[in-house]
Amino acid sequence: IIGGGFTFVNGTPRKNLARLSDNGAIDLSFDPGSLINSGSPTEIIVQADNKILVSGVRNTAVPDWRGIVRLNSDGTRDTTFNVVLNTQTPDIELQPDQKIFAAGSISSVNGQPVAGLARINPDGTLDTTFTGQIAISGVSTATIQQHGNYLVGGTFLSVGSFFRQGIARFLNGGSLDVEMFDGHVHDGAIKRLWSLPGGRIL
Asked: Which residues pair with 46 in a beta bridge?
């Protein structure tokens, strides 16, 4: 699956999202049509059931989703998943339990206030058991580690009263890991994070 800012693929109309065969030909069985009319995909995740999560997009004519949409395998919208974020461009990660961890300039999920981080249930509702917060303007990326903790990167300088420059780890419930992780990035920003085997971080 490819995402970006385009309107045609191999001469076939496709707005910012398409699926290709292994020889590069467009897969005509996947067609989102006019579902996405604003924004370009920032993250694309194919679930185990072949449904597809896409972030960074919206449809200005459809008010019941924004920022993240879930597609069926044929490209149509999965209407069992409805979420409205205040922003179109979160970084998202899919958990094994199919919940979605989102990080970015997020201040609300379905009208409920959050601060930079949110965990979203498989139906699009906010998981209120996650209570992590961070400076909204300073979050760029996130990744999930093997034990279910969350690494968050960006340009922030602190989390609450704790000095955390550019990188921080949150425990599964949302509290800041103040004992086992104390990394800092000086004179710069973290744009992307990946969790590697053995607990290492790229």
From this structure: 52
CB 14 within 8 A of CB 2: no
- The length of the chain, given as a count of residues: 202
Alpha-carbon span 165 to 69, nearest angstrom: 32
| Its pTM surpasses 0.85 | yes
| Rounded (5°) CA angle 88-47-141 | 40
* Phi-psi sector, 33: left (phi>0), alpha (psi -120 to 50), beta: left
- The secondary structure element, H or E, covering residue 148 is none
For the chain, 202 residues long, give each residue's pLDDT as a single digit of tens. 999 999 999 999 999 999 999 999 999 999 999 899 888 899 999 999 999 999 999 888 888 899 999 999 999 999 999 999 998 778 999 999 999 999 999 999 999 999 999 999 999 999 999 999 998 878 999 999 988 999 999 988 888 888 888 899 999 999 999 887 676 776 778 888 888 888 888 8
d(CA 7, CA 14): 5
Phi-psi region of 174 (alpha: psi -120 to 50; beta: other; left: phi over 0): left
- Is the distance from CB of 40 to CB of 56 less than 8 angstroms? yes
Q: Report yes or no: 38 and 24 within 8 Å, Cβ to Cβ.
A: no
Are the C-beta atoms of residues 166 and 155 closer than 8 Å to each other?
Answer: yes
Q: What is the DSSP letter of 86?
A: S
